[in-house]
Design a protein that fits this description.
The complex is a heterodimer of chains A (187) and B (551). Chain A is mainly α and 187 residues long. In chain A, 44% of the residues lie in helices and 0% in strands. The longest helix of chain A is centred in the last third of the chain and has 16 residues. Chain B has one domain: 3-Layer(bba) Sandwich (FAD/NAD(P)-binding domain). In chain B, strands 1, 2, 8, 9, 10, 11 and 19 form a seven-stranded mixed β-sheet that branches. Chain B has a six-stranded antiparallel β-sheet with strand order 7-13-14-15-12-18. Classes of the chains: A mainly alpha (187), B alpha/beta (551). At the A-B interface, α3, α6, α7 and α8 of A face α2, α10 and α11 of B. Bound molecules: flavin-adenine dinucleotide and iron/sulfur cluster (SF4).
């Protein structure tokens, strides 16, 4: 079950992400890495308490230390104002409109996915790419988030089983182990 | 209760002032608009554990602020461009307890003696108000030495042939050289340059109760998860341990109150939105070189030079693709630098003359790679080429680069003022930056860019590319917004109240119990990162206030 999107929107989102970061002989694509879950998790960040905005610290546990990334940070009142405005839009609320209205990510995604069309998943790759190229603003937004979902820490919902990092030989968060002086200077 | 001092800003400048004043027995409040992710809220003498190797949190989601939706700045290249061409993030450094010291990868070289006396050494430049500083290197040296010890700086004595004289050794030896730097240093030396290990505010050995850096690679733009970076956690922890500091995070200083040319304290807005007044004998402003003039203007101070002479460094960025892995994800972001392009030579003097300049200066050159995958991915196109590009990784795994922090001159037209319309979430006018590089910066960049590319080719580069920040194209495009994070010069220091805002000790000429203790006071930008020099100046200003001497 998606966190914020409808099932139908989620399917279009997943197909669009796969088009941006496709599976190939060089590695898995966005679908296998759960990139759509990253985007859906951002859109629905306030369905969780604390909201899924900032993973905790100082370590994830993958290289030793505690699994601190799993404990998300509480937001302050002003942090919440910023992130609700960014995600939900200003919704005519005066405290969010001190510099004018803000269109939120939820609305941009809802409209962008709608414009890709209910038949998006039925198209071949060229057809999907053409739809994405027809709305470069939405494609740019989605690509930025897809990169975060593919290559960001898995606690945010993407990079499932570290597939994104493994495909590119990236070790990810290395604290508290770090790198030895020898590994730094004479790898 | 009247405090001895209210310090606005908890970055390297404010933290240093708090350290010196509390050691002298003063009772202070530190007003910081950002959140506290640096010190343990249950025991403010200990570091917190909020920092992490997390590219989403630090690079995509404004964990350390300022969030441009809440605290936008505005930009235009010149007054001819109308009220503004851009609203958002303009050369910001973190807004958080610790300020930009939390993000910085901490190359902290000292300036050299010539950097304080450009006019007497080289003469004036058309269009720029170049001036000598009202103090020289020798006067600042004891403060450089003190803050190198209090921050914890690692370096190699005698390695930089161009450095000014030192009264003592670096507190720590240099840390491990990055592999890519070992190759670029050798290539630069073959071409006659003089690279050296960057003096760095990160522990190479356990120091001051904090561990040695373990080379995690998430350094520039990230807080250090193990607090091996000394600046400014070391000074803040010491100040907290005196019990004489009230740290007020999430609290915005909205104005300095004055009665008959003396400040009586600071109006603040707390985390709950409630306004209150902090009465104090002295006010120290260390809000950074964009927010400091903003606060002075919000306070109604009217010296005509407040905000003028903004400098940010004109960065020349030269990248090369290597036929080998550079391992830039291992280690501090930069381990080596060279000064040759500040010092100049016959070829640069000839290029200056051909460019119509009496003289010109480049800047410190940082030897570095590009490390992290989200940033890399966004530089590649989407679609079928993406997986192969990410796996082959010409940017993350195989790129090496030089960033020259080119000295930019103090032009009166480059400035910070209050935007007439755009506000922050608390309702206060945003800072507006007007900035355009001049002929000096462009001639220097054009001269040194190809020379840096030649070093990359000597390393074996298969391709090279030269760019700059700010970009040199359309003045209305976002690329015209500088991204150097080195803001200086907006509250100029000098002996003459007609040509400077603060006196040689950092006190405002007009309101002498207001002291400015950050890089706003710089007279010229030098070609070096500003932090060690601003911290040394802040220590000096605090010692003058307290009547103490550097340790
Ligand atoms: C990624 C990165 C790398 C860097 N690398 C280097 C480097 O290698 N070498 C170098 O020399 N420099 C470097 N810098 C620059 C360095 O961070 C700054 O020079 C330094 O932080 C400036 O210190 P400061 O104390 O003057 O101001 P800041 O660090 O900007 O601190 C000012 C503080 O004041 C607070 N504040 C502002 N206005 C108000 C207000 N009205 N009320 C309350 N609080 C307020 C802000 O929130 C902020 O926390 C780097 C910066 C970044 C971001
Ligand atoms: S590279 Fe070193 S100083 Fe930088 S964040 Fe990692 S451990 Fe800290």
């Amino acid at each position: 079950m998606p966190v914020w999107l409808t099932e139908e929107e989620y399917r279009v989102l997943e197909a669009a992400c796969e088009c941006l970061i496709p599976r190939s002989d060089r590695g898995p694509g966005a679908t296998a890495a759960g990139v759509a879950d990253y985007v859906d998790g951002l859109l629905g960040a306030f369905s969780f308490d604390p909201p899924r905005i900032w993973a905790g610290g100082p370590t994830s546990g993958r290289m030793g230390g505690e699994a601190g990334f799993a404990r998300f940070h509480q937001l302050s009142a002003i942090d919440e104002l910023a992130w609700r405005t960014r995600i939900e839009g200003s919704q005519s609320l005066p405290e969010r409109e001190f510099n004018g209205p803000v269109v939120g990510l939820q609305e941009r995604y809802r409209q962008g996915l709608d414009a890709l069309g209910a038949d998006f998943c039925d198209l071949d790759v060229r057809g999907r790419e053409a739809r994405l190229r027809a709305d470069t603003e939405f494609a740019d937004l989605l690509y930025g988030h897809a990169c975060e979902g593919m290559y960001g820490a898995p606690e945010y919902g993407g990079n499932r089983d570290l597939l994104g990092w493994r495909a590119i030989g990236f070790e990810g968060d290395v604290q508290p182990r770090g790198w030895t002086d020898e590994e730094v200077t004479r790898p | 209760m009247t405090l001895d001092a209210v310090i606005v800003g908890s970055g390297p400048g404010g933290a240093t002032v708090a350290d010196v004043l509390t050691a002298a027995g003063w009772t202070v409040a530190i007003v910081e608009k950002g959140r506290n992710h640096l010190l343990d809220p249950d025991d403010l003498t200990r570091p917190a554990s909020d920092f992490s190797n997390d590219e989403v949190k630090f690079r995509s989601r404004y964990f350390l602020g300022p969030d441009p939706l809440i605290e936008p700045r505005t930009f235009r290249a010149s007054e001819d461009d109308g009220e503004r061409t851009f609203v958002g993030e303009v050369n910001s450094v973190p807004s958080t307890v610790g300020g930009g010291g939390t993000h910085a990868d901490g190359k902290v070289p000292r300036f050299r003696p010539d950097d304080f006396r450009l006019v007497s050494r080289f003469g004036p430049q058309d269009g720029a108000d170049v001036a000598d500083w009202p103090l020289d290197y020798d006067e600042l040296e004891p403060y450089y030495a003190e803050v190198e010890r209090s921050v914890g700086v690692a370096g190699t004595d005698g390695a930089n042939p161009f450095a000014g004289p030192r009264s003592g050794p670096f507190p720590m030896p240099s840390g491990a050289p990055m592999f890519g730097a070992t190759v670029s240093v050798a290539a630069a030396e073959r071409l006659g340059y003089h690279p050296y290990p960057a003096p760095t505010a990160a522990n190479s050995v356990p120091y001051d109760g904090r561990p040695a850096c373990n080379n995690c690679g998430f350094c520039a733009f990230f807080g250090c998860p193990i607090h091996a970076k000394g600046d400014p956690v070391a000074m803040l922890r010491r100040a907290m341990a005196t019990g004489r500091v009230e740290l007020l995070p999430e609290t915005f200083a909205s104005g300095i109150r004055t009665v008959q040319n003396r400040a009586t304290g600071v109006d603040v807005v707390g985390p709950d939105g409630a306004a209150r007044f902090l009465a104090a004998r002295h006010v120290v402003v260390a809000a950074g070189a964009i927010e400091t003039p903003r606060l002075l203007l919000l306070s109604g101070f009217d010296h005509p030079l407040i905000g003028r002479y903004l400098m940010t460094h004109f960065q020349t960025i030269v990248a090369g693709g290597m036929p080998f892995r550079t391992y830039a994800e291992r280690g501090r972001a930069v381990t080596h630098v060279h000064d040759d392009m500040i010092v100049g030579d016959d070829a640069s003097r000839q290029a200056a003359a051909e460019g119509g300049l009496p003289w010109m200066r480049g800047g410190l050159v940082e030897h570095s790679g590009a490390a992290l995958p989200i940033l890399e991915a966004t530089h590649y196109p989407w679609g079928s080429a993406h997986p192969g590009l990410m796996a082959d990784s010409p940017i993350r795994a195989r790129l090496w680069a030089f960033i020259m922090q080119g000295e930019d001159l103090p032009y009166p037209t480059n400035r910070v003022d209050l935007d007439p319309t755009i506000r922050d979430a608390r309702g206060f006018p945003a800072a507006r930056v007007t900035y355009r590089a001049g002929r000096h910066e462009h001639v220097a960049s054009d001269h040194y860019g190809p020379r840096l590319a030649a070093i990359l080719k000597e390393m074996g580069a298969e391709w090279t590319a030269v760019t700059s920040s700010p970009g040199r194209g359309n003045a209305a495009s976002p690329e015209a917004v500088p991204e150097s994070r080195h803001n200086v010069g907006t509250v100029r220091m000098g002996a003459d109240p007609a040509s400077s805002v603060v006196d040689p000790q950092g006190r405002m000429h007009d309101v002498e119990n207001v002291v400015v203790a950050d890089s706003s006071v710089f007279v010229t930008s030098a070609g070096y990162g500003p932090t060690l020099t601003l911290v040394a100046l802040a220590a000096r200003a605090a010692h003058v206030l307290a009547g103490t001497r550097p340790a």
